[in-house]
Amino acid sequence: xxxxxxxxxxxxxxxxxxxxxxxxxxxxxxxxxxxxxxxxxxxxxxxxxxxxxxxxxxxxxxxxxxxxxxxxxxxxxxxxxxxxxxxxxxxxx
Length: 93
Known about the structure:
Layout: H1 11-35, H2 41-73
Helix pairs in contact: 1-2
């Protein structure tokens, strides 16, 4: 399977990475803000650090998810020429 599909192919993985980061930061921010577990500057610095570090760590996983989505929704086509197709077993009937 060819993984280098062309320029801009992995743009969808950026959407996955950004979307999950935004979802986690938003949920975590409101959870910490309303429970008053962490307040003020600590919450701001923690959320900022998470927004910088999490996408760097999640980068490869987002690409893997993108490849999985692409393979699931647009599977590779079967070979069209007989030379590329696997050889058939002869029948002796």
